[in-house]
């Protein structure tokens, strides 16, 4: 029978591996991080370069892989839990900035997504003052997946749809869906954060 504190740990998180560094999942996460600047440079210097798509899509698609490996092998680590969201943020930022630079996304999309991430980082900083950390939500994971997919397709420049005699990138439509989800996830984050702080305050009484 596992000890009570061990049984309550999230799936894949074991005490003996929490402080490990060079796990398979962490190595994949670091490789994802290394790909980000190469993908950005390839995109802004030559938008028609297929290497930009493969580098970016490769970094984006392995987001799911490292998480699955960590949970299934019981090697979820503290450094992995810290770096993985950072890589996602850098991927999203480099994608939206790069696509704006090559004129495949308008400025308002860049502003909304950067403002949303800034708000989330500020919220995380405020929670740290209470020694609290917001768990990744389902809507947050979905938002990241939709945006990364949309950015990847926009970098590729394919496929396109013809609507009312006008041509649209499928990636653009996914990005717009991702923006809606981004706003919803920010609202959900605020609600959960206020509940966590209120519960924390009650526990001190």
- Number of extended strands: 2
Cα shape: globular
Compute the separation of the termini in Å. 34 Å
Q: Rounded to an integer, what's the Rg over CA atoms?
A: 19 Å
Keywords:
205 residues, mainly alpha, Four Helix Bundle (Hemerythrin (Met), subunit A), two-stranded antiparallel sheet
What does this structure look like?
The chain has 205 residues and is mainly alpha-helical. The chain has one domain: Four Helix Bundle (Hemerythrin (Met), subunit A), CATH 1.20.120. The chain is 73% helix and 4% strand. The protein has helices at residues 4-7, 24-45, 50-72, 78-101, 107-128, 138-156, 170-204; strands spanning 160-163, 166-169. A two-stranded antiparallel ribbon has the order 1-2.
Give a short overview.
By secondary structure, the protein is mainly alpha-helical. It has helices spanning 4-7, 24-45, 50-72, 78-101, 107-128, 138-156, 170-204, and strands spanning 160-163, 166-169. It has a two-stranded antiparallel sheet with strand order 1-2.
């Amino acid at each position: 029978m596992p000890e009570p504190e061990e049984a309550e740990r999230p799936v894949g998180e074991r005490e003996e591996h929490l402080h490990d560094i060079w796990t398979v999942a962490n190595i994949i996460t670091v490789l994802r991080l290394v790909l980000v600047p190469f993908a950005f440079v390839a995109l802004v210097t030559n938008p028609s370069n297929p290497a930009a798509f493969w580098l970016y899509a490769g970094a984006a698609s392995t987001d799911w892989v490292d998480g699955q490996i960590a949970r299934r092998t019981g090697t979820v680590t503290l450094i992995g839990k810290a770096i993985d969201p950072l890589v996602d943020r850098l991927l999203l930022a480099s994608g939206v900035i790069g696509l704006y630079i090559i004129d495949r996304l308008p400025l308002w999309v860049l502003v909304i997504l950067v403002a949303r991430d800034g708000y989330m980082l500020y919220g995380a900083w405020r929670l740290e003052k209470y020694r609290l950390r917001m768990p990744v939500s389902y809507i947050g994971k979905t938002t990241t997946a939709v945006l990364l997919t949309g950015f990847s397709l926009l970098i590729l420049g394919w496929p396109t749809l013809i609507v009312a005699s006008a041509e649209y990138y499928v990636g653009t439509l996914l990005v717009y869906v991702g923006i809606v989800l981004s706003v919803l996830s920010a609202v959900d984050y605020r609600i959960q954060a206020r509940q966590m702080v209120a519960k924390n305050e009650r526990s001190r009484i």
